[in-house]
Specification:
alpha/beta, 40% helix, 2 domains, three-stranded parallel beta sheet, TIM Barrel, 310 residues, globular
Length: 310
């Protein structure tokens, strides 16, 4: 029964509802209508008819309602939620588990932000042959704790764990020994890949070399498909150059370069996540560089928006 039908039934019912009761019913049906609209919002590719998801984890001030473009908010839970006294350093090879109660509280709160959750625990050494299995076991344990306290329909995945992010080995090509070494490291993550609901590979921009980025991104997506062929892939992208680029760190990516990335993900992934660093909290959304205008053009050019808010 839709919200409108429910309210009509209540009003016409032989039940003698009081005015306060009808007001409450109106509020409930309004909530139902909003929820239904949110759930129906979907981007559909104009060429192949496939759905595509665009999420945002942006820190800007005064972000408007992006529902007109079907850009959905996504929640990421960082390590400090689980280790409030400081996340262990990766170089310490600390394999200690977080407090289970903190994981449970995150799971209980996650539905407030939608039906999809991203966990960000990056210090367990999945790349190290000696410790990789223990690291995978830890990740799976946290998933198990999370699911025991989250609703059954809550989907969850890890940022950047599967596959391992590696620019230089990824661009060498499948026949190169270092590329094969990278694949062997990813093979150790098959069990973890089978446990998550979604993969969130990280394909941030390190260099101005667009062809290099495309090769690197394609390899990351290909590895995701290879080790988890049945999982959705929502790739993380960042509209700034990575801090490791000494000459361009923190600069906005050029709009044409950004469009190259968006078009690539439309073709090769199931969706994307636009992420920005916490320091963007000092920037008003209205003042961001033109990469956002390019994002809007990309959505309008590429997709039909079903159920989007006006």
């Amino acid at each position: 029964m839709t919200g409108g039908n429910l309210l009509q039934w209540l009003q016409s019912s032989r039940l003698a509802l009081s005015t306060p009761a009808l007001l409450i019913a109106g509020v409930l049906t309004s909530c139902m209508t909003v929820e239904a609209t949110a759930e129906e919002c979907q981007l559909v590719d104009k060429v192949n008819g496939e759905p595509f998801k665009v999420y945002q984890i942006m820190g800007y001030r005064n972000i408007p309602d992006l529902g007109t473009h079907c850009v959905e908010r996504l929640k990421i839970w960082y390590g400090h939620e689980f280790w409030p006294n400081g996340v262990p350093r990766k170089d310490d090879f600390d394999l200690g588990l977080p407090d289970r109660g903190r994981v449970q509280r995150v799971a209980e709160r996650s539905p407030e932000f939608g039906h999809l959750t991203v966990l960000d625990i990056e210090h367990w050494p999945v790349e190290d042959e000696t410790f990789a299995q223990a690291a995978v076991d830890n990740h799976i344990t946290v998933l198990d704790w999370f699911r025991k306290s989250a609703p059954d329909d809550q989907a969850v995945g890890y940022y950047s764990m599967v596959p391992i992010r590696d620019y230089w080995r990824a661009i060498r090509g499948e026949d190169h020994p270092k590329y094969k070494d990278w694949q062997e490291e990813n093979d150790r993550l098959v069990e973890l890949a089978s446990e998550v609901d979604v993969l969130f590979p990280s394909i941030y921009t390190f260099y101005e070399d667009q062809e290099g980025w495309l090769t690197y991104a394609k390899a990351q997506i290909d590895e995701s498909r290879r080790i988890a062929p049945d999982k959705k892939i929502y790739a993380f992208i960042w509209p700034e150059y990575h801090p490791s680029n000494d000459s361009r760190a923190g600069e906005a990516i050029e709009p044409d370069y950004w469009r190259v990335q968006l078009d690539f993900l439309r073709e090769h992934a199931d969706g994307l996540v636009i992420w920005t660093i916490d320091t963007t909290k000092a920037i008003d959304f209205a003042d961001i560089p033109p990469w956002w205008d390019e994002t809007v053009d990309f959505i309008e050019d590429s997709f039909a928006c079903q159920g989007c808010s006006s």
